[in-house]
Specification:
This protein has 155 residues and is mainly beta. Helices cover 14% and strands 41% of the residues.
């Protein structure tokens, strides 16, 4: 399986304000979220993924802590592309005699996976448990049959 990362918005901070050095390039090419001088996000958070294969299926495990299953969307697009999106919004408010405190947070992500031809698109299943999204991608029967070993007699 191949994995495509989202394009990053490089912004002014990367392109104009700092010289191009190896250390700076290594930092800005990392998967850590970056902020500009005002705290605005320059790149998206990308959840970690494990991709596994056995003889009957492929399995994607995506680490999505803090996201409820209602906040995650899994879509099969054209050309065997599997898109996984998530978006969350949290708000809290505390009022006391002397003050009122309001806090909010917002987060989103998008991952895109190129699926192999042997995936049975009609039987893809997804479930979310304890901050992990599990996407099961069963293989077509024809792909499973071709993978079985056949003993050949020695003459």
């Amino acid at each position: 399986m191949s994995l495509m990362k989202p394009r990053r918005n490089r912004g002014l901070m990367v392109s104009n304000l700092f010289p191009r050095t190896s250390l700076m390039n290594d930092f800005f090419e990392s998967d850590w979220p970056m902020t500009d001088w005002n705290g605005g996000m320059l790149s998206e958070w990308v959840p970690a993924a494990n991709v596994k294969e056995d003889e009957k299926r492929f399995m994607i495990e995506l680490s999505v802590p803090g996201y409820a299953k209602k906040d995650i969307h899994v879509e099969l697009e054209e050309n065997n592309m599997l898109r996984i999106n998530g978006e969350r919004k949290d708000e809290s408010e505390e009022e006391r005699a002397n003050f009122t405190r309001k806090e909010f947070s917002y987060g989103s992500f998008s991952r895109l996976f190129k699926l192999p031809e042997e995936v049975n698109e009609g039987k893809i299943e997804a479930k979310c448990h304890d901050g992990i999204l599990f996407v099961e991608l069963p293989k077509k029967e024809s792909a499973i049959a071709h993978k079985k070993a056949k003993e050949i007699q020695i003459a």
